[in-house]
Design brief:
The complex is a heterodimer of chains A (about 220) and B (about 180). With about 220 residues, chain A is mainly alpha-helical. Among the domains of chain A are: about 45 residues, no CATH class; about 30 residues, no CATH class. In chain A, strands 1-2 form a two-stranded antiparallel sheet. In chain A, about 5% of the residues are buried. Chain B is elongated, with a radius of gyration of 18 Å. Classes of the chains: A mainly alpha (about 220), B mainly alpha (about 180). At the A-B interface, helix 1 and helix 3 of A face helix 2, helix 3, helix 7, helix 8 and helix 10 of B.
Chain lengths: ~220, ~180
């Protein structure tokens, strides 16, 4: 049998992590090459077991410049939370801070005063709210009115512009019509003259014919 | 306050030096001893350790948690060790001056301790054999795992491993004959 398979098993067998199979034991008994490998493995493993991990000499694990020096310190991490907690405490405990000539004092303010103050504040806020609403409504109405006026103005301007254009067009049309009327009049006058001439000519011809008939009648017996 | 490894990694990426130091402390001994076995002397082992952790920090944001953090660091350490030994091989003269010198105080220290035998044995091996022996004996990898780590076939790994431990026996026999 080929040694290849057993060569893979020998280290695990020597280390004790593999239970030897009958096949492996038989092979080791008969194959001197694999037996030598087993012996080498055993001796080398024994030597390696002498190794004791050494401690690491002191060294700078995070040298200067290795990390960003602008790392936020605790005041930036916890400061805002601390301020929020203090402010919350002042509000909840009705604490009052007074600065005067002798220094600064912190005392509990009266609940009634606080209630009145809150009522006043609420009333002021309501008044401001109403003012604001009224102001907003006024602004809205003004805006709407301005918009409507603006629209009307735009429409008027458009109408004016349109009327001016219309007047101009009518004036042009009128002048055109006037020219055309004059031309038509002249044409009709010419036609009337022609018809008059034609009629006069016919009249003359009729006179000639009538005279001729009359003269013939006079000459005939 | 106790932080998990994942939290420490996240904080280290954000620039928290304390978290980074914590991660280093947990892994530096394993890396340093691996580097010591690979290089054979403490100065080089320390330089290599610092180099490994510098690389780990640089790549920290790309760590995908597919393996454990220590396994990931060791992989970086293997690569760095091979690079280090190749550079050392290229400058043979420097190597002779710094490593073989009998006046090297660190070498004397190593000679005097029980790790000397192991380091002397490893120093006689090629770079590849040294890494195979390291992975087999100290990291407990199978031949298949070593072949994946080193990008070699399993048969090549096996033959180089047995050649390495046979070489030791041959030298011992030769020294006994002499």
């Amino acid at each position: 049998m080929s040694c290849e398979r057993f060569e893979t098993q020998i280290p695990d067998y020597v280390e004790g992590s593999l239970n030897p199979s009958r096949e492996l034991e038989q092979h080791l008994e008969t194959c001197s090459s694999c037996r030598e490998k087993e012996t080498d493995m055993r001796r080398t493993l024994l030597m390696m077991h002498q190794w004791n991990d050494e401690s690491v000499p002191a060294w700078n694990r995070a040298p200067v410049g290795f990390f960003n020096p602008k790392r936020p310190n605790w005041i930036w991490s916890w400061g805002p939370l601390l301020v929020a907690v203090v402010l919350f405490g002042f509000v909840m405990l009705h604490l009052e801070v007074r600065v005067h000539d002798q220094g600064t004092t912190i005392r509990f303010s009266k609940t009634e005063d606080s209630t009145e103050m809150i009522d006043q504040l609420v009333a002021q806020m309501d008044a401001r709210d109403q003012q604001y609403r009224a102001s907003l409504q006024s602004m809205l109405e003004t805006y709407q009115s301005e918009q409507e006026q603006l629209v009307e103005r735009i429409v008027e301007n458009a109408m004016v512009d349109q009327n001016q254009d219309l007047k101009k067009s009518i004036r042009v049309l009128n002048e055109t019509w006037k020219d055309q009327r004059e031309k038509d009049t002249q044409y009709f006058q010419r036609q009337i003259h022609a018809v008059q001439r034609y009629t006069n000519q016919n009249y003359d011809n009729l006179n000639v014919l009538a005279n001729h008939i009359v003269n013939n009648d006079r000459r005939s017996p | 306050m106790f932080f998990s490894e994942k939290q420490l990694i996240k904080k280290a990426i954000q620039g928290h030096a304390g978290a980074w130091e914590n991660l280093v402390k947990k892994n530096e001994k394993a890396v340093y001893n691996l580097a010591l076995r690979m290089t054979g002397n403490r100065d080089d082992a320390m330089d290599l350790t610092q180099d490994v952790f510098f690389d780990v920090y640089r790549k920290l944001s790309s760590f995908r948690q597919e393996s454990s953090f220590s396994t990931w660091i060791r992989k970086i350490a293997y690569g760095k060790s091979i690079d280090f030994l190749r550079r050392q091989k290229e400058s043979t003269q420097i190597q002779e001056d710094s490593v073989i010198s009998e006046t090297d105080p660190h070498r004397d220290l190593i000679k005097s301790d029980q790790n000397r035998v192991v380091l002397d044995f490893l120093q006689q091996l090629t770079t590849e054999q040294r890494l195979i022996v390291e992975l087999k004996f100290f990291q407990g990898q199978t031949f298949d795992e070593i072949s994946q780590t080193m990008n070699l076939s399993a048969n090549t790994v096996k033959s180089r491993f047995y050649a390495a431990i046979r070489n030791r026996r041959m030298k011992m026999e030769a020294s006994h004959v002499l």
